[in-house]
Amino acid sequence: MPDNTTKGTFQTDIPADAVEEALRSVERIAGEKEQSPPAPPGEGEALPRASEPGAGEGTESLAAQLALSQELARETLERLKETHDRYVRAVADLENYKKRAQKERDEVLRYGNEKLLKDLFPVLDGLDRALSVAAQDDPLVKGVELIRSNLEQVLSRYGVTSFSALGQPFDPSRHEALLQVASAEHEPGTVVVEHARGFLLNDRLARPAMVGVAKAPEPAPKAEPDGDGKREEGGEG
Q1: Alpha-carbon span 147 to 152, nearest angstrom
Q2: Does residue 77 belong to any structural domain of this protein?
Q3: Distance CA 34, CA 213 (A)
Q4: Would you say 187 and 216 are in contact if contact means Cβ atoms under 8 Å apart?
Q5: Residue 136 lies in a domain
Q6: Are 69 and 142 part of one and the same domain?
Q7: According to the model, what pLDDT value does residue 65 have?
Q8: How far apart are CA 130 and CA 178, in angstroms?
Q9: Same domain, 95 and 146
Q10: Which domain holds residue 91?
Q11: Are residues 107 and 119 in the same domain?
């Protein structure tokens, strides 16, 4: 049987269903490519290596930016520290100022009338001296005592109290010695005379007590012997 097929050609029978399936696959793949978003610029591209041209310039630029950022961060930190220190000092100064102001206010309230009150002490001294020399049957004594009591009550409302030093050891922080008194009955350094009482203003000394302090008496002088050191004996007359 003669061969009618041309030499060098290949011929086969392909089912129609396979052809249609292949066409549908091609159309589906093409549609998916059209719907997929474009790749971002540079994606899939390899980063330039250090040996490639331009890679060194990029590294140096990043290093410079990093160094600048670090320097700015240090400067910002220093400014924050300085601001914090100033704030702490300001708060401390304010607290100290409040304490000083409160202390000064308390001082004014407690001792603001000290000068006026001191001017009244001699008035009390005069009343004390008048009572010390007045006769007990004098009708004016009770009136003077009443005036003295009222004046002391007024002074006490402002924090003034008096104290006596008689019979106490001399205390230079509370007493002012005006004289020394020779006394064999009292220990040396004991207050035996009081010319004026002392006064306290809110537990602070406003005026010391004016006192006289005892001292040991002077020893008696020894009798001097006569010229020959012997007492003359009287002869018979």
Answers
A1: 9
A2: yes
A3: 123
A4: no
A5: yes
A6: no
A7: 85
A8: 21
A9: no
A10: 63-111
A11: no
CB-based burial of residue 165 (10 Å sphere; 0-12 exposed, 13-18 middle, 19+ buried)?
A: buried
Distances (CA, A) of 88 to 16, 49, 145: 92, 53, 61
Torsion angle, CA of 17/21/27/32, rounded to 10 degrees? 160
**Shared domain check, 120 and 80:** no
Tokens at 104, concatenated: 């000064």
Is there a domain that residue 186 lies in? yes
Q: How far, in Å, CA of 99 to CA of 93, rounded?
A: 10
CATH label of the domain that carries residue 166? 2.30.22.10
pLDDT tens for each residue of the chain, 237 residues long: 444 444 444 444 556 666 577 667 767 766 665 555 555 544 444 445 545 555 566 788 888 888 888 888 998 999 999 999 999 999 999 999 999 998 888 888 788 888 888 999 999 999 999 988 888 888 888 899 999 999 999 999 999 999 999 999 999 999 999 999 998 888 999 999 999 999 999 989 999 999 999 998 887 777 666 555 555 444 444
Please tell me the total count of domains within the chain: 2
Position 176 in a domain: yes
CA 126 to chain centre: 47
For residues 127 and 211, membership in a common domain is answered with yes
In terms of Cβ atoms closer than 10 Å to its own Cβ (0-12, 13-18, 19+), residue 192 is: buried
Amino acid identity at 173? S
Place of tokens 């010229």: 227
Q: Cα(48)–Cα(45) distance, rounded to whole angstroms?
A: 9
